[in-house]
Amino acid sequence: MESVLFLTKDSEKEGDQTKNMGAPQHEEEVKGAEGNGTHDQSATPISPTEFFLWKRRKDALAATEAAEAARKRAEDIEAGRVQLNGRELFEREPWVFDDSRFE
């Protein structure tokens, strides 16, 4: 838990206000920031099983989208519509990076 410094009457008298820069001035503000133990009524409670099913579907969708993007990128590279990045150039034409001829 993050610690919060309070402005006390003693520190006001001493003029030491650097300790509480940015800290809430009232205890109610701190309580509101930490939460009062009530749950958000608009949130839908779900079971761990439901969560894992949702997560599996989400991961599968992300994997298919990534595979489709990679396939499209490969097609665009073969057709010459996009420029190769360094890794792709090294994988396809490694002779470009061969410095042995300069030795």
Order of helices and strands: HHHH
Low-confidence runs of at least 5 consecutive residues: 4-8
Give the helix proportion (percent range): 40-55%
Shape: elongated
Count of helices? 4
Please outline the major beta sheet. Answer: none
Span of the ends, CA to CA: 60 Å
Radius of gyration: 29 Å
According to DSSP, the number of beta strands is 0
SS-derived structural category: mainly alpha
Percent range for β-strand residues: under 5%
Mean model confidence by pLDDT: 76
Can you describe this structure?
- The chain is mostly helical and 103 residues long.
- 51% of the residues lie in helices and 0% in strands.
- The protein is built from 4 helices and no strands.
- The longest helix is centred in the middle third of the chain and has 32 residues, at 48-79.
- The radius of gyration is 29 Å and the shape is elongated.
- Residues 4-8 have low confidence and may be disordered.
